[in-house]
Fold each of these.
Amino acid sequence: MAKVTGIGGVFLRARNPTRLAEWYRRHLGVPMSDGAAVTFHWTSDETTTFALFAQDTDYFGEPGQHAMLNLRVDDLVALLDQLRASGVEVLPDAEESEFGLFGWCVDPEGNRIELWQPAPGM
């Protein structure tokens, strides 16, 4: 059975990502980049990214969704098939990039969840 293996990222909408990134740097010591993101390296093959997105991004889906989880998975294709077979809403567009495979599903409360199978060596 394909499954989630960790949290790949936490993404927040922000009215002003640059200003909010500065707040996280100054008050919490989070080493946010100028692009309003940071990747924490827990082990050589496990990372978690915290990133701020513009308020008007459509990447999260519905405008009312203020945060999106990125969950690391061991077999994206199999997991998406399992979710579809269980009646879970799976979005039709999966993507492949140098970072790996990405797919999305929607939880029962309408929150878009990003599922990520890292590329080998990530």
Amino acid sequence: MLILIAGPVRSGTNGNEVLIHENIKKLDQIALQVYQRGHTPVIGEWLALPLASAAGSQKIGDEISESFLYPVAHRLIHCCDAILRIPGASQGADNDVRIGRERGIAIFTQLDEIPVVEA
């Protein structure tokens, strides 16, 4: 399955880039575990941040990055088979789950809910 990892990135950071990058690293580690279960993980920021940078964004949260972060995730949801919602307050991740439910895709809240696929 192609699985979107949804969780806190900017929530609770007050725009502190160190904390934002720590949150992204946490998502990366969960993505690695999803991959090890035999699936293809994706995180919206993996695509949105390079696009925003190419468009002239100077930092996460500036006007240019804002025009990419949520729209890229929403486009990704339409390509995904499932969403893994990791713990933590995040309106963006909650919205991803809402969109996923509307599309009828699987929503996981625990890593161990995701089946292991033998290669």
